[in-house]
Amino acid sequence: MNYPQPLIELIENLQQLPGVGPKTAERMALYVITKLDEQDVLKMSKALIGSKQNLMYCETCGNISETPKCSICRDETRDKTIFCVVQEAKDILAFERMGMFRGQYHVLGGVLSPMDGVGPEDLRIIELLERIKEMPDAQEVIVATNPNMEGEATAQYIQSVLVNTGIRISRIAHGLPVGGDIDYADEATIMKALEGRREF
Amino acid sequence: MNYPQPLIELIENLQQLPGVGPKTAERMALYVITKLDEQDVLKMSKALIGSKQNLMYCETCGNISETPKCSICRDETRDKTIFCVVQEAKDILAFERMGMFRGQYHVLGGVLSPMDGVGPEDLRIIELLERIKEMPDAQEVIVATNPNMEGEATAQYIQSVLVNTGIRISRIAHGLPVGGDIDYADEATIMKALEGRREF
To answer: Which pLDDT tens digit goes with each residue over B46-100?
Structure first.
């Protein structure tokens, strides 16, 4: 005896989710079948396909949006002179939660990674250059890629592309996380924290 | 800025899955939106609702089935004199994988758990009693609930219900798992392994 076909199909399909292998998918599928109401499963099913059909990428910044232009790009009260370049759309939410940045965003859609075959043409770097050229008031680009090897290489590359635009290009600071312990920090972080020290 | 509504709905709905909290649901939802093809998401969506609409519990044994009577209960070549009582339908698959048991199953749908408000009337114990009464050839009931407190209490209860039927009632053996290390085993397991020792 094997599982019935609809159960096998559900197990296989759930494995598309990140971090879900065969065992987890099996546990999830059995839970769906034995514990959840049909109404709730219908809702989940609709939410899945609805998220694909009703969401798109903002044509300007690349943010996830319900409309061709996202709510940040449409917001006339936001500063049009400063751009924060992030790897992924979800990084925008992290900045927005913090709430102090009132400028524009630009989503790269990844980082340079020769190992994974990701080159500059796979990222939205040309679009960034064009956006800035079209903005005579543009003053600064903050590169907020992740503080790891790929993120640094990508930041360097963006700097090299934008250097002739005359715009100010900055990189978010590296250092000890707020609330962190020095004795738990790795050496690279401590080195960056030392390098980036500022006078009182 | 918050996430757009379809994304929020997906994050909320994915949290219905076991082991998926807000952070995991967010990661999964963003993955669905940014990395998966619409076709694949449509398939997953259909598999979810299809699993609810096309599966049922076998009216005889309680196994998950595509038909009112499951493939095991329909199989005329299987032994009708011996019954294996399991907690959940998924336990049947574990026995079937092992492949040496050719009798019938009976799914309880849980175990006695006064803390969670699960009493005998919530389990398929009456159904078991009736099944056995209708089977004049029935010879043995093997109680294969899990080897923990609730499983033992449930096994004891089933024994007390069936004792007057004159049928043989057995409990699966406890002991060291095959391939296990004695020095990793807990004391309760070692005690059970000692109690259950057999002569060569």
So the answer is: 999 999 999 999 999 999 999 999 999 999 999 999 999 999 988 898 888 888 8
Beta bridge partners of B168: B140
Which tokens is A167 given? 């715009």
Question: Chain B closest CA to A194's CA: distance in Å?
Answer: 32
Q: Which of B188, B145, B100 is nearest to B196 (CA)?
A: B188
Match 């004695």 to its residue by tokens.
B182
Question: Which residue in the set B40, B52, B92 is minimally distant from A16, CB to CB?
Answer: B40
A to B CB pairs, distance under 8 Å: 162
Whole-Å CA distances, B64 to B73, B90, B142: 11, 8, 20
Q: Which of A134-138, A165-169, B106-110 has the highest mean pLDDT?
A: B106-110
The residues in A 119-178 lying below 8 A from B, measured between CB atoms, are none
Check: complex ipTM more than 0.90: no
Look at residue A175 and tell me whether its pLDDT is greater than 90.
no
Residue B53 CB neighbour total at 10 angstroms: 13
Q: Which residue has the tokens 């609330």?
A: A179
Instruction: Give every CB contact of residue B90 below 8 A, 6+ residues apart in sequence.
Output: A26, A30
Encoded tokens for A179: 């609330």
Nearest to A89 by CA among A109, A113, A104: A109
